[in-house]
Amino acid sequence: MEQENEAARTGLARRWPEAGVALLLMAGGIVVITDSLRVGIGWADDGPLAGYFPFYIGLVLVLASAWNLFQAARHWKKDVVLFATWPELRDVVSMLVPMTIFVVAVAFLGLYLPSALLLAYFMRRHGSFGWLATLAISAGVPVTAFLLFERWFLVPLAKGPIEAWLGF
Amino acid sequence: MEEFSNLMHGFSVALTWGNLGFMLVGLLLGVLIGVLPGLGGANGVAILLPLTFSMNPTSAIIMLSCIYWGALFGGAITSILFNIPGEPWSVATTFDGYPMAQQGRAGEALTAAFTSSFVGALFAVIAITFLAPLLARFALQFGPPEFFAVQMLTFCSFVGMSKDPPIKTLAAMMLGFALAAVGMDSVTGQLRMTYGFPQLLKGFDFLIAVIGLFGIGEILLTMEEGLSFKGKSAKINPRVVWHTWKELFRYKRTFLRSVLIGCWMGITPGGATPASFMSYGMARRGARDKDAFGKGNIEGVVAPETAAHAAGTSALLPMLTLGIPGSPTAAVLLGGLLIWGLQPGPLLFVEQKDFVWGLIASMYLGNLVGLIVVLTTVPFWAAILRIPFSIIAPVIVVICAIGAYTVHNSIFDVIMMLVFGVLGYLFKKLRYPLAPLVLALVLGDMAESSFRQSMLLSQGGLSIFFSNWLVGSLMVLALFLLVLPGWGAFKNFLRAREARGA
User: Fold this and answer.
1) Nearest Cβ partner of A154 from B54, B195, B417?
2) Per-residue pLDDT tens for B389-410?
3) Structural domain harbouring A144
4) What ipTM did this prediction achieve?
């Protein structure tokens, strides 16, 4: 019990993601500037070159992120605000990991089977559903999606080897 | 009264059985989106946009805008019954709406919310009907410098008016512009920032960004907050509705004030969320009995709902006439117009009369039908919210993935959606605003080309932006808004130094 309370109060300090995002945006700005310099930021015979506008965008992005980084660094020691507690972050990761696996699976297997598996996983892992309800809903959602999108609105969804084997 | 005959013509376009059907489907889908956590106006419309690819543009925009009205209505249901704002603009509605539901007056609160939404939207549509043609005629004289100045004003007002830190607003906006610049440059045909990846040739699609940032990001936030739905039950019968309507007549002044705030905030890109808070605050300040607010005062439901809908609707005015959306959802609708080959802007009113007036007529009809639909179907939506989160969450992820995939039939987009989702979560937590990022991503190419055309006209001199009174005053106003937060910080700095000195 004692440990649980302790875990609830500690967490990831906000300064880390704050600095991380600022550095990421700064890197993005540098990428933009580099490529703008490559295509040319000056003036050709027929008007401004392709890098003319993005160069300044990149420049402002780098400057703004540098300021945000500076602010994070300035309050580094004093900043005790939490980004999120560890249990909260664990909940986020418990969503993010299956979601990532789902997206990778969609790339290889098409949309339908991974959707059913994702639903089944959540209903068993986070909900207290019996196998029958799990089976019905996790099969029902992809079937509904198939009817709604492919049949009625004629919009094709991602398909993989299983759908090809079934003849769609 | 040319507008009136145009509007009548619009009604004849919108009032076909097919279009009425699409309106109804759109409204139901919209309320569903508004009720479900993680799906909102912007990403809901983005996800459903591919459904309309095979329709004609008029029916498509009627359905999409009805999805938007539906989402606006739906946000009120969750705020009042569950104390969960389904949309950011309905946060202020929870202040008095939920206490009313706790006291067993849920029916009254819902009727008041829906009616206020309807009134707000109705006045905003009337404003659009008469102002849009004027503005469009005026904007016909705009050249590239004027367009760039208006765009500049839009973006600067984000920096100046936003509640989020101004430098972070600037950074988010620049990220949007940078992402918009990726891919083939439309003027020179050169590839920019693709670094050899063929997937990047087309650039980043803002629809994917919207689905990721708002949809996936919101789901991650909801997971963190550990949501459990505990709702109040809702019963609406005609007697309650009639009784509430009679009571609402007492709040004419609140309605009027909220409509004005909403329309102003919607046309300038303030958006529905600040409009709803501002209107709530003004209503409380102006009330005789200030303490009743927050404890279930019906006026506290009327004020934010009216303003939010007025703002949400009038955000379409600059979108249609200038091609500059006032909100992320309006930006998505603008993206839809571009996909169907319609260039929003003043010429739309000359070249696509059927489309424009059909849309405006459908706004009148959509809101009226919407009011009837939500009043009759509330118990059904409340039941949907009782579905456990362990089903809702994966279903929303699947819906987002479907939406992201169907935009270009590309798996790469689904992966990008996930990346934008994580970014959206981080940005929300660290108070980087998402709206300027999305608007910059949508308007980036347009802003760049109007800037480059202006530079061509002036052979590289920035003085073109001050060459006549119109463009000059727009630029001065934009620059003023840009430096406004700096001025505030400077004053604080001086005051702090004075305090230390004394």
Assistant:
1) B54
2) 888 889 889 989 998 998 888 8
3) 86-166
4) 0.90
